Amino acid sequence: MVVLATFGLALGAATAVAAPGQPAAVRMARAPGITSAHGAAHATASCNPEASSLRPSGPPQVTPGSFMAKVRARGYLVAGVDQSTYHFGFFNPQNGQIEGFDIDMIRAVATAIFGDADSAHLHYKAISDDQRIPDIQNGTVDIVAHTMTIACDRLKKVDFSSVYFDAHQRVLVLKNSSVQNLAGLHGQKVCATSGSDSLARIAAAKAVPVAVSGWTDCLVLLQQGDVAAISTDDTILDGLAAQDPWTKLVGPPLTNEPYGLAISKQHQDFVRFVNAVLQQLRTNGQWAASYARWQLGTPVPAPPPAQYGG
């Protein structure tokens, strides 16, 4: 079964080089409210992750002097993505491409800037969970699409688009396991990636967090019996389960995990532009088509409605 994990996704890498930018300025989230994402530790009285983004100014337009115009002049958009999360961002060894639901969102943004999402206009940089925020802040990438939950602590460092997907943290175990939920893993080793907020939830349940660089690494550890479970977003766990039929998801949803595309605080015009693109995807059927294409569940739900804080 180890072969399943290593062959399935942990193949190859796509990299791109972009001109470095300046460190992002800190702008606190503006919308009031409390979030349940990843537990109360992230909640503050002045933060609502699901309504923290900037309202689009209208349809997506590349206006003179905008960040989008600079990207167009450069000739390509640089996106930080995952290459090991099946269904969302994964390297497909059959065609040598990075694909998935997250990638479809990025392709739509590139198309809105350039008129297409050809490889000449869209460069991917495969990054780990703990690289996501630093790479946005230092300008290595223009945008991150990486199953990234909008959370109050992250909003202090980067901006996010409106919510484009709703996930929930759960638990993956081997099919012969008697574990029913995260609480049943008290004192046992549970895997998650470095830089993911899943580690804090695991520790809060009195399990022993085991941090690795990628989710397929977690799957290998589970197959080898080195950990008792993996706990993270159900979207990621579904992809791992699709690679190994001897695993199963257990327990109820533990948290709400609203996904957003991460963008530098220096580029608020780009945030509004991306939100305009996402709104088009919600209304023209492309969001639903992508959901169905990557087999994220049936029936296909309505996309998360856009909420804004400014």
Q: Low-confidence spans: pLDDT under 50, at least 5 residues?
A: 1-44
Radius of gyration: 19 Å
How far from one another are the termini?
49 Å
Indicate the multimeric state.
single chain
Determine the fraction of residues in helical runs and give it as a percent range: 25-40%
Structure description:
- There is one protein chain.
- The chain has 310 residues and is an alpha/beta fold.
- The protein contains 10 helices and 15 strands.
- The protein has helices at 2-8, 67-74, 101-114, 132-137, 152-155, 198-204, 215-224, 234-243, 268-283, 286-293; strands at 77-81, 84-85, 89-92, 97-99, 122-126, 143-145, 159-160, 165-167, 169-174, 189-193, 208-212, 229-233, 247-250, 257-259, 262-263.
- The strands form 5 sheets. A 5-stranded mixed beta sheet has the order 11-10-12-9-13, sandwiched between helices. Strands 5-1-6 form a 3-stranded parallel beta sheet. Strands 2-3-4 form a 3-stranded antiparallel beta sheet.
- A hairpin with a 3-residue loop joins strand 2 and strand 3 (89-92).
- Helix 3 (101-114) crosses helix 9.
- It starts with a helix and ends in a 17-residue tail after the last helix.
